[in-house]
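Blinded run. Sample ID left blank on purpose so nobody reads anything into the name before looking at the predicted structure. Input follows.
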Amino acid sequence: MTEATRVLVLNSGSSSVKYQLIDMDGRRRLATGIVERIGERSARLVHTPADGERRERGGPFADHRAALRAAAEELAADGTGFDSPELAAVGHRVVHGGDVFSGPVVVDDRVIADIEALVPLAPLHNPGNLEGIRTAAALSPGVPQVAVFDTAFHTTMPEYAARYAIDVRTADEHGIRRYGAHGTSHAYVSRRTAALLGRAPEDVNVIVLHLGNGCSAAAVRGGRCVDTSMGMTPLEGLVMGTRSGDIDPAVVPYLARNADMSLDEVDELLNRRSGLLGLCGDNDMREVTRRVDEGDGAARLALDVYTHRLRKYIGGYMAVLGRVDAVVFTAGVGENSAPVRAATVAGLEPLGLAVDPDLNASAERGPRFISPQYASVAVAVVPTDEELEIAGQAYDLVST
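Blinded prediction complete.
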């Protein structure tokens, strides 16, 4: 009998479906793919099997169901389809689990109902996640569907870190509290950082900086999150590509009263027209740093605001943790932008942090230290792998 060791990881977003097929026996990627611009004329599917021979096809893909069916056809053409006896589980990224889910769960009717009830907290993401779950279940009946939540890693935050200082009755009635995001990344990277240090996760305190178009920081003590920068939604915290991060809440009523902006317009401003984009007109950090090198003042200000906020969180989380073994950069910007890493750590030498210019500029891509030997707190770059984390959590759940 063929042993089921493969996990298909699905990330069903608002207008795209990303997927990876991973064999947990050796942690080998057998296929990756994306269906993007779902519902548009320009929709397309890009599929890359293990042999690297990329295949591309156009739509139309009217909805998530059509997109996933097309992905299933590509996988089947490689002999790795939804009906493969080697498929142990389908692992689904679900953005918001609220305070209901503190770990991965096998999906049943109750789980679906609970995820639906959390849609108001993630209206752009949870509906697409649910479509992915329902469609995959129809395509692979009998194969466990496992939901892995972005928020789950942060449910270990103490109540005083998760609570906002507002009326408790109102907060509880409407689920207003800090949930965080990027939890699978923070879990994976904090564990990998402990391995890089040669220590067990439970013996290590780390500050993880997940820096992409969305950005978040997490204070991780002994493998458990004790604080994180994103809040009830992904808007809170660090400066991001298009999101403002921390801002005086009074800005919202001020704009409503004095700029005649509706709540939807303010929401659009803070989520899609702020951050780096709002400050300098570019949300791609590569373009921002290129402009800085050319002497562009707006780009310089944007980078300074971005790294100033990062330093505030590093300092704050050092105070929260008491002892910090490493500050680690991850995700697209964190892994690839040496200028951002250098600018973030600059001036933090009194706190034991420093970056070695040569190590920081290295083209190496694996987990690595970029701090000099004399630094009392390690600074590291650790590539994230959220898909592998989802696959691992799903496989561990169904194979026990």
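Unblinding after everyone has recorded impressions. The mean pLDDT is 94.
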